[in-house]
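Q&A log
Question type: sequence-to-structure
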Amino acid sequence: MQTTEQDERARLERRRKNRRFNAAIYCAMGALILLGVYIILRDQTNIFDRKTAPVPDVTSPPEIVIPTATPEPTAVLTGEPTKPPPTPTPEPASAPVSLYFEGHDISVAVVPVGVDENGAMETVPKHDVAGWYMYGPAPNEEGNCIIAGHNRYSGKKGFFSILHEGLAVGDRVIVTMENGNTVFYAVESIEEYKYDEVAPSVMEPWGETRLTLITCLGDYDYDMHMSLTRVVAVCKPIN
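Response status: OK
Response body:
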């Protein structure tokens, strides 16, 4: 009789141990599943990291103040010798350091880039940093300021994926420059091109003052080491 009771207690103890072991296994499996979901979301979305640069502390372009006071008599009215108006001193060029997609809460650090051995614009080897074509105009100069970023890089979703995943005509883009000033742009157009059919105006540094944002899209060609589609957003200065 005593042996039977001992066997029963031993059996119950084994069951308790098995339940504790199974519970530990289930907890470990759950933790691994959650870790996997986190890694997938982190690499496939911008939920966890949407900024590599500070958000500009401005929400609208500077006000243009129109004076209301009575103007002084001109030289034509007073008969005095005319003098040419003073020539405004142009603001020195200043490199862009960050780009903010207003309304999407994405702020991207920007660094200058040149050209590679093939003569093409270099890219930044990071998913969350964009490159400004340093041989073209800066944001406060006339012409085409070109900034390119990745749609994906090294298995991570690039910040410039916003160009085809939510950016719309009329959205505002704010560029902060090295001198601390900001330039406001509004998206005028968003187009997709095959890599060998990109409009010549996209990479031309001259012409109408604008900001051109570029990213890649589509299938990756491992022989050519690039994606086969380009997304191009052209933005015009607001003021």
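Response note: Residues 2-44 form the longest helix (43 residues).
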